[in-house]
Design a protein that fits this description.
Two copies of one chain form a homodimer.
Chain A lengths: L2 H8 L6 H13 L3 E2 H8 L5 H14 L2 E4 L7 E4 L13 E6 L5 E8 L10 E12 L1 H4 L2
The first copy, chain A, binds a DNA duplex (25 and 25 nucleotides) through helix 2 and helix 4.
DNA sequence: GTAACTGCAAAATATTTGCATCCTT
DNA sequence: AAGGATGCAAATATTTTGCAGTTAC
């Protein structure tokens, strides 16, 4: 079975053109996408509203997660299998390339613990590293 | 001299009602503010556009810095003295309290280095920790 | 006096909601 | 057939831009 099909089925989502296509985009590209990227990539095949709703659905189901960014845009990226609905495990490092501008999930790099001042109790943490990615390095 | 006056002067900005007031807000509150917060706190004393422009000016001058957030809003917080125009040193940890929802700069907690996969060259990093802050702890 | 800042109007952009229709199961 | 997903229209929210009047120095 196609990977995107199985992901949708596993999450009790009906399989529609839009969901398949958007999920496929994430699977193909491997980096994080903004709403605007998805609109561009799908070239108006789906209504702007459908894209909003699809992304929201995927976030709710734990298929994708949001990535914090300094600039305006909200980015989304695929979750690992360990994510479940309402319970994300996205405590890995996100890398933003200054050159190609891609945002990549470094799934294997976990966010280190830091010593917080007295009284602060951490529950979750996120980390963003900027720089040059492995693909742009050689060029 | 007032602290906000000296900050403005130091950055060659003319001292206006709006700039003084917005800077004062940051100095008083100590936590990070979104554009919407500032509008609410100043209760329409200044045009919405003025607030946008003032924040942009402050960012350009290195008086405040933007903080990445998981949800939509862009947050701003005061920079330490070591920040200069066009050259931020905001590599400290930002703490978001789940209870009071404030975002606090932990200026003394520096972002630890992480080992990146082969080929990735870091230039800058940011970190966000969620949890319960010191003030909400006791309550 | 002059350059810079502000407010207003309006354009451009982004996001949300309601509802009728169509599609998946 | 029934429930959910989509598209369209429109409401709402957010951000940017131009310009004329005002203010800081």
């Amino acid at each position: 079975m196609n990977q995107n099909l199985s992901i949708l089925k596993k999450n009790n989502l009906s399989v529609t053109e839009g969901r398949r296509k958007i999920l496929e985009l994430f699977l193909e590209r491997g980096d994080a996408l903004a709403h605007a990227d998805i609109e561009k990539q799908t070239e108006g095949a789906f209504d702007r509203v459908t894209v909003y709703r699809t992304l929201q659905t995927f976030v709710d189901k734990g298929i994708i997660h949001q990535i914090p960014t300094t600039d305006n845009a909200i980015l989304y990226a695929l979750c690992k299998d360990s994510c479940e609905a309402g319970h994300h495990h996205d405590e890995h490092v996100h890398f933003v390339c200054d050159k190609c501008n891609k945002t990549i999930c470094l799934d294997d790099v976990t966010v280190p613990n830091v010593k917080l001042p007295k009284g602060f109790k951490p529950s979750q943490s996120a980390m963003i590293v900027k720089g040059i990615c492995n693909e742009c390095r050689g060029n």
